[in-house]
Design a protein that fits this description.
By secondary structure, the protein is mainly α. The protein is 72% helix and 0% strand. 35% of the residues are buried. About 5% of the residues have low confidence.
Length: 351
């Protein structure tokens, strides 16, 4: 329950960061926005080293989810908000860099998720066993400052490129929706696109949260077992958004549909005696769900000028999954019926 609540905080802060990236670039443009973001990153150094405020711990049992969300927000909310905004912002900056592949910066999303996966594995197996909490805090704070300096270097390159690309005549409002790299008009994404991106973001995240709860609560309770679903979830992002289109071209529905039906039967008839088989099948369902929907997201990604909106709606789906699995489902269902609904939705989508 603590882990699911932390995931809800993570998704909500991610959405806030993505919204900030989208709206600030729309209002200021890349050059001025990069100045603003760099100033905010430097100003947030005042909050270092990071620490967790545990005020009100003696009454946390009355409403543990709201207490945990409030403590996370007060302790690391602003820092994580700024970090969350970096992924879409740097991709948008890169689209202005003049590089040969600047019109398709989505491979950087694969790189950022690869970094998340490395951190996920490094913390419990390398950092925590060999470093104390204070050492980890100092290391993280040093990394945050280093990231700010790297961001400053990236911003300087964008400013320099903008000086070289200054148009001889001012642009007009008619250029608002033109492609950055050509004179051809591009269609602005509509609400159908937005809702599709949100749904494609919702179902894999819900599958990951529900599978984690089912595995750790109903099949086996083992230290760090929750790492496996999250690692598979991140891996699906890494492969789907990779520079190579190999993983996006696989017809994942061929594998997802039969695996989903099998997992539905295993869940319905409570087939958990062979723990290794049950865990493996539910992890396979979750990974295949991620690969199918994330590949569709990557294959249908809009032109670079709309990437911030794209990530906002993917994050809306993630927040909806966090609310559904972490807040609504425990209040609505006596059993883990949300997992059954998620599997059913996946099967109906690919049928």
């Amino acid at each position: 329950a603590v882990w699911t609540t932390c995931m809800l905080f993570f998704q909500a802060a991610l959405l806030a960061g993505y919204l900030y990236a989208d709206k600030s670039i729309a209002l200021l443009g890349c050059n001025r926005q990069s100045v603003l973001h760099l100033m905010l990153m430097i100003g947030s150094w005042l909050l270092l080293p990071v620490s967790i405020d545990t005020a009100g711990l003696e009454t946390a049992h009355a409403s543990p989810a709201s207490w945990l969300l409030s403590r996370l927000t007060a302790s690391i909310g602003l820092l994580f908000f700024l970090l969350a905004a970096n992924a879409p912002l740097l991709q948008r900056y890169y689209s202005q860099s003049g590089q040969p592949d600047a019109d398709n910066p989505y491979f950087l999303y694969s790189a950022s998720n690869a970094g998340s996966l490395l951190a996920l594995l490094a913390f419990p197996f390398i950092l925590e066993p060999f470093m104390g909490a204070n050492d980890i805090r100092r290391l993280w704070s040093t990394g945050y400052i280093l990231l700010t300096l790297i961001l400053g270097a990236c911003s300087f390159m964008i400013w320099k490129q903008a000086e070289n690309d200054k148009p001889s005549t001012p642009s007009t409002g008619q250029d608002r929706f033109r492609n950055l790299d050509s004179e051809t008009d591009v269609i602005m994404p509509g609400w159908v696109d937005n809702l599709r991106w949100a749904f494609y973001g919702f179902l894999p995240c819900s599958a990951m949260l529900a599978a984690t709860t089912h595995i750790t609560a109903d099949i086996a309770s083992a230290p760090l077992l929750w790492i496996l679903p999250l690692a598979g979830y991140l891996l699906s992002f890494i492969l789907a958004f990779a520079r190579s289109s190999y993983w996006r071209q696989i017809r994942w529905q061929r594998y997802l549909f039969p695996v989903t039906l099998l997992c539905l039967l295993m869940y319905y008839y409570v087939l958990t005696e062979r723990a290794w088989l049950s865990i493996g099948m539910h992890l396979l369902f979750m990974v295949l769900t991620g690969m199918f929907f994330h590949s569709r997201l990557a294959a249908g990604a809009p032109p670079a000028r709309f990437l911030n909106r794209f990530y906002v709606w993917i994050s809306v789906g993630g927040v909806a999954a966090g609310l559904f699995n972490g807040i609504l489902a425990p209040m609505l269902f006596k059993t883990q019926f949300e997992y059954f609904l998620t599997m059913l939705a996946a099967a109906l989508t690919v049928a």
